[in-house]
Structure formats: structure tokens, C-alpha cells
Specification:
single chain, mainly alpha, 4 helices, 67% helix
Length: 96
Amino acid sequence: MWRAYSDVREANYKGSDKYFHARGNYDAAQRGPGGAWAAKVISDAREQTQRVTDLFKYGDSGHGVGDSRADQRANRWGRSSRDPNHFRPAGLPDNY
């Protein structure tokens, strides 16, 4: 998961967020049941933290709810060992 996080920061490529969510969870799941469990715990904590941050920033406006749901969908996709390239945006450099 750390590699996917580092890559998303380095790539800074519009529309690539879901791909990196799926790839990080996929990579973790390939390490076995413990990796899939850790990926779920980390992904859920990250999304919950973001929801709390959004609440303080934007109030109870629902800001970011749809994006958070889409992130979690990509996380589940990757953890189920499905191909993260399903979320890969056109034009993302091959080294990612």
C-alpha cells in the first residue's frame, strides 16, 4: 500500500486516484489474508479520517461522500484480487 501511496503522490495525475486505491489494496491482498485484512483496516481508517476532516472543513454538507464511496469501491475491487487496471486512467505513464 505504501508503494501505491508514494506513486499517487509522485504521479500527481488527474483521475488516477481510484486506480491507486485499487492497486494498493490489490498489492496488499496478494500477500495473503493478513495483507487483505490490513488493507481493509487501513483503507477504512483513511476514509473515516477524511470524512471527519471534511465535516470540520465543510460542515454537514455531504461534501466528499460520493468520492469516499467510490474510493471504497476501488479498495474492495483491489482487495478481491481483481485487476486494478480497471480504474487506470488513459495516459497514466506505464511506470505506474
